[in-house]
Each structure stands twice: as C-alpha cells, then as structure tokens.
Amino acid sequence: MSVLYLHTAPKPNLPGTDAVFQESEILRSRFGGNELVIYPFLNPSSYLPRFLYGWHKFLEIGKFQKEIALNHVFSPGLFHYPILKILKKPIVYSVTATLRDEDLERPLTSFRSLANILVNSERDRRKLSDRGFENVVQVPPVVNVESLKPGPVPDGQQFILLMASAPWEANQFDSKGINLLLRAVKEAPWLKLVLLWRGRLMEELQNRIQKEDVREQVEVIDELVNIQEVMDRVHATVLLAKTGEIVKSFPHSLVESVACAKPVVISDTIAMSDYVKNFGCGLVLKRFDLPSLLPILEQLRNDYSVFREAAERVGGSSFSSEHVLEKIGQVYHQINPDL
Questions:
Q1: How many CB atoms lie within 10 A of CB 207?
Q2: How far is residue 251 CA from its own chain's centroid?
Q3: Residue 283 is assigned to a structural domain of this protein
Q4: Residue range 238-264: average pLDDT?
Q5: Is the separation of the CB atoms in 137 and 116 below 8 Å?
Q6: Are 257 and 236 in contact (CB under 8 A)?
Q7: How far apart are CA 3 and CA 85, in angstroms?
Q8: Domain match, 203 and 310 both
Q9: What average pLDDT score do residues 301-327 get?
Q10: Quick check: pTM over 0.90?
C-alpha cells in the first residue's frame, strides 16, 4: 500500500527549486507512492478558481484510489477543491502556508471529516484548535538539514543577504518584498542582495533591478545550486510577505539558513517569526515599509555576532528530517497500519 501525493501548485520550471515538491519527494522516498499535480496549467495564477483544479486528472485520480492506502494533499490554506470529493481513501491535508484569520471565517465543516490536517506551527495549530478542530497535528516541515553545517562569516565590507523565495507571478514582486528589498539596497550602499530564482519572470526582475540602478549590488542565481555553498557566501537570509499565505509557514530557505548558523529577517505575517523571536536567531519585520526595514537590517549588521551565535545554538536541531518522517509515519500508520 502506498500514498498518492496531490499538489495544488504547478511544478517549478527548475526541478528541485520548490520547497513543497522537495518535501513530497522526501516523503515518497520513505513511504512510496505517486505524485499528481491537480493545478490545471503550467503557469501559476492566483485568479484561477479552485473548483477547476484536478478535473483534467479525473480518470488518473480515480485509478489510483484502487491502489493506495491514503491521499496526502498539499495546499497553502484550507481551500475547497471539489475534485477531492472523488477520493475514496482517507485524506491527510497539509497546510503549507500560514493560516489567515479571515480564511477561517469561511464554512469549514468538510475539513473536520478529514483524517488529519497537518500544520507546521503552533500558531496555526492553536487557531484550528480554538475553532474546535480535533484532527489537527503539528508537524515541522520536512527539510533535509542533516547535510548542512555552520558556514563562515563572509569577508569584505558588504553585508550580504540571501532572498531565496522567487515569485510565482508578477504581483509577488510587491507582496514578497522584492521591490522593497531592491529599494533597501539602493538606500544602503553597504548592502548586497543575492536572489535565488527559479526560471520565471527573469526579464521582469532585470527590468526592476535596472530601474533601481542597483546592478552592482544584486546577484541573481537562476539555476539549481548547492544551498550550503550559497549559505557560505552570505551573512543572513531574508523573506518578507505582506500576507502569510503566499509563502510556507516555515520557509525552507530560512530553516536552512538557521541550520547554517546564518540569522534571518522575517515578516511577522509568517508563522516562523514566532520561532525566530523565541530563539533570537534573527529579527522580525512588523511593518512592510522601507523606514521599518532599514533599521532592522542595520541592527542585524551591527549586532551580527549576537544573532549568529543564537542561530548556531539552534542549528537544525528542530528540523531533523528523520524525526519529522517518524511523526508523519505515525499519522499514516494510525490511518492504515500497513504504512
């Protein structure tokens, strides 16, 4: 018996560059199974109604129901996908992003009958528990941190930030803070930004870099890379989000950064910001604007040794993939003892 992993987002242009697909690959290597993308197009769009998802795979999904023990769905939030009604086997539903309060005001009765809802953060577990959900399990993200180690402090006068969550669509240049970071670089000559891209919107990015006239301070990497080698070249990692549902609740790039003893800068809309505050391994941005961001970056640079030591103390201990796989294995086993 195996698992069918269902993705509600398209595959990345560059294989191996999307965190959720990385997670499902690790899960498949442990528990076996197959993977289907129920998003109906190659290019992502936030405007496509979710009731259209999956019907182009109707026959394939139905065939798998005869062969599997359970379905594991990955979605950024608690969204209704009518195609899931044809699933005959139990459903484990992973919420990959941070839940918004307004999303929880919608009718959610159907989610109470799912076998389990998996969330990464205590923040999201508490939100659902407060609303009477009894099928919620908090599980850290599946990130391969075992191969990562603390990296050196880069030489030179520039303070180097990595941003490794490229936009899926053009409006995310704003909502993921890329425009804001480019403006910060322009205002701070001591700052350098490394952008880890994934094969989409490259022309748009280059136009924005040229518009801000920061080509000498921005490096773009548009290929699959060894993340340890990249982390060794930067001081810290940054990920901003106007709203929490557009990025993972525990973004892989930030988890990997902490595992490499590199502190992070994160928006308070992202659930991992609670973890960062608790362990002091970085700084949290509360207001999404330049006057708020620049002082935080300056504080990180000025007190870098303090934040780096905190990140090194935490390391990857909270995110051992073996520990997380065991926990997910327990969830699977409770549903079907053959898994």
A1: 11
A2: 3
A3: yes
A4: 95
A5: yes
A6: yes
A7: 17
A8: yes
A9: 91
A10: yes
